[in-house]
C-alpha cells in the first residue's frame, strides 16, 4: 500500500486526519508493513543486545506467543542477544498501558515494543491511549520501533470471518496508518481455520484431527500460541530487508488530548485522611489471592476498615483514575473534582477471584485539578484496598514519597536502618536532613567516606548530632524517610534541612522538577517536621549554588528555587538561611577550593557552612549549654 496524503474519517469516532497510509481500517488483513521495523532489523543483523518489549494483557503475560517469539528472533539471528522485556499485566488494555509505559517499558530502553490490547480495550479512551503510547515511545527515543499485534476472543470470530476488523482494531489501524506502524492481525488465520472446520475455537478436551485453540474462548493453549508465533514470524520475514536505521518522524497528533503524558502515582504520594494503613503485601489474604496481577497493578496498597476515609490528589491534566481490589459485597467510592458534583461508583467484583481493578473519572478540561475519593459505603467486616493512581497529565513527583530511586556508592536501605537504630540511643539535639552534600559532611551514622570531618567537629562537636543526609536523595525520598520512622519520637533543638539539588536532575528513575514543585515539596517537609516536633527550630537552607558558571541553566534554576523558598512566607518554627554568596567567588563562579566538583563542598566549604550555622545553633540550643 503506497503512502498517500488524504483526509478520512476513521471508524469508531476517530477524528479527521491526514493519513500517511490508506489501508482500509474496516477490513481485516493479516499483515500491513507500512514503515516496517528498520531499527530493529539493523540491530539484529549487527549482533549484540536487542531489547524487545511486550506490552499487553493476560494473553501476552502467558507463557505463549511472547517467549515463543523471543525464541524465534534468537534462532533467526544467533549473533544477536535477545533480551525480553515482559511488560504484560492481566486485565489491562491500552489505557493502563499508556499510564505504566515509562516505568515498565521505556526505562529498560527497548528496541521494539509490541503493543497487544485489542481484546482488553482501552477503558473508553482507546484512540487517545493508543496514540499516547506511540507518541510517548517516540518522544523518549525516536529510534524505538513499534508493532501492533491483534489477538482475538470468541466474540470477534464472525466479523473476522466476514473480512471485517473489530471496532478497536479499526481505531488502532487508523493510528497505524497515520504513524506508519506495522500491524499483525493474529485473528485472521484463526478465524478462517475455525470457519473451515480445522480448528475448534473453544473446547475443554482434545478433538481428533483438529486444533483446539482455547479452553475459555480467549486465552490460547500452547498450540494456539504456536500459531500466533508462526504468523508473527512470517510477518517479520516480510519486513527484514528494510533495515536502514533511522529515527521515526513524529507528526502532529490526531487527538490533541491524547495520553502521551499518562503516568502512575504511588498511593503514598496522595494526601490520605486518618484511617488508612499500609497493606502487608506478602501476608494480606485479599492482596495476595491474585498476587501477580494485583501487585503489578497496585504496587503496594493502603486499606481502610470503615467508611469516611478519603484520598486527595492534585494533578495538572485531564483524566485521573484509581486502582483497587473490589471483593465481597459491593462498596461505594465517591469522587469530587474541584468541589463539584459528587460522582459515585459501585465497586464490585464480577469474578470469584479477588482481582485488582481500576476505573477513571470523566475527562476534565486541561488544567490543574484536585480530586477527593471518599469511601462512602463499606460492608461490615470488609476493607477497601486502594493502589496507585492513574494520571493523564502530571503531578508533583517531588511531593510523592519514594524510597531509594538511584544507585550510589552505599546501601541506601542500610543507612535508613542505621538511622533508625542510632536515633534511639543518641537522643539528638541537632538533626541534619538532606542529600549527599549533608551525607558527606560527617557524624553518625557513618556509612561511607566523609569530606568535612574537621568542619563537622567545629560545628557540631558540642552537640549530640544525627546526620540524616542520604546520597542522591530528592525531596520525595526525605518525605518517605519521615513517613518511615526516621524522625518519629525525636524532639531536637534544631533541624538543618538542605534538600532539592537532586530534584533538578533527570534520570531514568525520576524526572526533574520545576522550581515551584521543589519549593512546594520543601514546604511540605518543613510542615511534616513541625507537626512531629513543634518546638524544634528548623533552619531551612537555600539550595547551594551548583555548576561552575553563574549562567549555567542549573544555577539559574537553583536561584529560582531559592527565590521561591524565600517567598514562601512565614512557616512555623522555620528560619531561612542563604549562604550562596559566601560559597561563590566575586564573579559568581564556583571554585574547586570550595566545591570540589562544583556541587559537593570541600573541608573549606563545610567550614563556611558551619560558621554560618553557629549562631543559630547556639541560640536554639542555649538551654542545653553549661
Structural class: alpha/beta
Q: Give the name of the CATH architecture of the largest domain.
A: 3-Layer(aba) Sandwich
What is the rounded Rg?
Answer: 28 Å
Number of extended strands:
25
| Mean of pLDDT | 93
> What is the CA–CA distance across the termini?
88 Å
Protein architecture, described:
This protein has 626 residues and is of the alpha/beta class. The protein folds into three domains: 23-239, 3-Layer(aba) Sandwich (Rossmann fold); 262-395, Galactose-binding domain-like (Jelly Rolls); 412-624, 3-Layer(aba) Sandwich (Rossmann fold), CATH 3.40.50. 32% of the residues lie in helices and 23% in strands. The strands form five sheets. Strands 11, 12, 13, 14, 15, 16, 17, 18, 19 and 20 form a ten-stranded antiparallel β-sheet that branches. A six-stranded mixed β-sheet has the order 3-8-7-6-4-5, sandwiched between helices. β6 (112-115), α5 (126-140) and β7 form a beta-alpha-beta unit. α5 packs parallel to α7, α15 (475-483) runs parallel beside α16 and α16 packs across α17 (553-566). It is globular, with a radius of gyration of 28 Å. Residues 2-18 have low confidence and may be disordered.
Would you spell out the secondary-structure blueprint of this structure?
Blueprint: E1 3-9, E2 16-21, E3 31-32, H1 38-46, E4 48-56, H2 58-61, H3 65-76, E5 80-88, H4 94-104, E6 112-115, H5 126-140, E7 145-150, H6 157-161, H7 167-179, E8 183-185, H8 187-196, E9 199-202, E10 211-214, H9 222-239, E11 262-265, E12 271-272, E13 276-278, H10 285-289, H11 291-298, E14 302-304, E15 310-324, E16 331-337, E17 343-347, E18 357-360, E19 367-377, E20 384-394, H12 412-426, E21 430-434, H13 436-439, H14 453-460, E22 465-469, H15 475-483, E23 494-498, H16 515-532, E24 537-541, H17 553-566, E25 574-577, H18 580-583, H19 603-620
Parallel strand pairs: 4-5, 4-6, 6-7, 7-8, 9-10, 21-22, 21-23, 23-24, 24-25
Antiparallel strand pairs: 1-2, 3-8, 11-20, 12-15, 13-14, 14-20, 15-18, 15-19, 15-20, 16-17, 16-19
Amino acid at each position: 500500500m503506497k503512502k498517500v496524503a488524504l483526509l478520512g474519517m476513521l471508524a469508531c469516532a476517530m477524528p479527521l486526519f491526514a493519513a500517511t497510509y490508506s489501508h482500509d481500517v474496516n477490513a481485516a488483513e493479516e499483515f500491513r508493513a507500512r514503515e516496517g521495523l528498520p531499527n530493529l532489523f539493523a540491530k539484529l543483523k549487527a549482533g549484540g543486545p536487542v531489547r524487545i518489549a511486550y506490552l499487553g494483557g493476560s494473553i501476552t503475560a502467558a507463557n505463549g506467543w511472547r517467549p515463543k517469539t523471543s525464541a524465534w528472533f534468537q534462532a533467526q539471528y544467533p549473533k544477536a542477544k535477545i533480551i525480553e522485556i515482559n511488560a504484560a499485566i492481566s486485565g489491562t488494555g491500552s489505557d493502563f498501558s499508556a499510564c505504566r509505559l515509562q516505568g515498565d517499558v521505556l526505562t529498560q530502553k527497548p528496541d521494539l515494543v509490541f503493543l497487544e490490547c485489542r481484546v482488553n480495550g482501552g477503558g473508553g479512551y482507546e484512540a487517545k491511549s493508543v496514540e499516547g503510547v506511540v507518541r510517548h515511545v517516540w518522544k523518549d527515543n525516536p529510534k524505538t520501533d513499534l508493532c501492533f499485534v491483534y489477538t482475538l476472543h470468541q466474540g470477534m470470530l464472525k466479523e473476522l470471518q466476514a473480512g471485517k476488523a473489530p471496532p478497536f482494531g479499526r481505531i488502532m489501524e487508523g493510528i497505524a496508518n497515520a504513524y506508519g506502524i506495522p500491524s499483525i492481525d493474529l485473528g485472521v488465520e484463526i478465524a478462517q481455520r475455525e470457519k473451515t472446520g480445522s480448528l475448534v475455537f473453544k473446547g475443554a478436551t482434545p478433538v481428533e484431527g483438529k486444533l483446539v485453540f482455547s479452553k475459555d474462548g480467549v486465552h490460547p493453549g500452547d498450540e494456539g500460541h504456536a500459531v500466533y508465533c508462526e504468523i508473527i514470524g512470517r510477518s517479520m520475514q516480510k519486513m527484514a530487508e528494510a533495515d536502514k536505521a533511522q529515527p521515526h518522524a513524529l507528526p502532529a497528533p490526531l487527538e490533541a488530548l491524547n495520553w502521551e503524558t499518562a503516568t502512575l502515582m504511588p498511593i503514598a504520594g496522595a494526601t490520605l485522611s486518618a484511617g488508612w494503613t499500609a497493606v502487608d503485601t506478602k501476608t494480606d489474604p485479599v492482596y495476595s489471592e491474585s498476587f501477580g496481577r494485583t501487585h503489578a497493578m497496585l504496587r503496594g496498597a493502603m486499606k481502610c476498615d470503615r467508611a469516611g476515609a478519603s484520598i486527595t490528589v492534585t494533578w495538572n491534566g485531564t483524566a485521573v483514575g484509581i486502582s483497587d481490589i473490589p471483593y465481597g459485597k459491593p462498596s461505594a467510592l465517591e469522587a469530587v473534582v474541584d468541589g463539584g458534583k459528587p460522582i459515585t461508583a459501585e465497586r464490585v467484583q464480577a469474578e470469584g477471584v479477588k482481582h485488582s481493578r481500576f476505573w477513571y473519572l470523566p475527562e476534565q478540561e486541561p488544567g490543574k485539578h484536585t480530586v477527593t475519593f471518599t469511601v462512602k459505603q463499606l460492608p461490615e467486616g470488609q476493607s477497601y484496598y486502594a493502589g496507585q493512581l492513574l494520571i493523564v497529565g502530571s503531578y508533583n513527583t517531588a511531593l510523592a514519597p519514594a524510597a531509594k530511586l538511584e544507585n550510589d556508592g552505599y546501601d541506601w536501605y542500610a543507612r535508613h536502618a542505621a538511622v533508625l537504630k542510632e536515633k534511639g540511643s543518641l537522643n539528638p539535639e541537632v538533626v541534619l536532613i538532606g542529600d549527599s552534600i549533608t551525607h558527606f559532611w560527617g557524624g553518625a551514622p557513618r556509612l561511607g567516606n566523609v569530606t568535612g570531618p574537621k568542619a563537622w567537629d567545629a560545628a557540631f562537636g558540642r552537640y549530640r548530632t544525627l546526620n540524616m543526609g542520604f546520597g542522591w536523595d530528592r525531596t520525595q525520598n526525605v518525605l518517605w524517610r519521615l513517613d518511615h520512622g526516621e524522625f518519629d519520637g525525636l524532639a531536637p533543638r534544631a533541624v538543618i534541612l538542605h534538600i532539592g539539588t537532586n530534584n533538578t536532575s533527570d534520570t531514568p528513575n525520576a524526572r526533574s522538577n520545576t522550581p515551584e514543585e521543589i519549593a512546594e515539596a520543601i514546604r511540605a517537609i518543613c510542615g511534616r517536621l513541625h507537626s512531629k516536633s513543634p518546638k524544634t527550630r528548623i533552619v531551612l537552607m537555600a539550595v547551594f549554588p551548583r555548576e561552575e558558571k553563574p549562567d549555567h541553566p542549573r544555577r539559574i534554576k537553583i536561584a529560582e528555587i531559592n527565590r521561591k523558598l524565600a517567598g514562601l512566607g512565614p512557616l512555623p518554627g522555620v528560619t531561612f538561611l542563604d549562604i550562596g554568596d559566601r560559597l561563590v567567588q566575586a564573579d559568581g563562579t564556583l571554585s574547586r577550593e570550595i566545591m570540589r566538583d562544583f556541587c559537593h563542598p570541600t573541608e573549606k566549604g563545610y567550614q563556611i557552612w558551619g560558621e554560618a550555622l553557629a549562631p543559630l545553633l547556639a541560640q536554639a540550643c542555649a538551654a542545653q549549654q553549661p
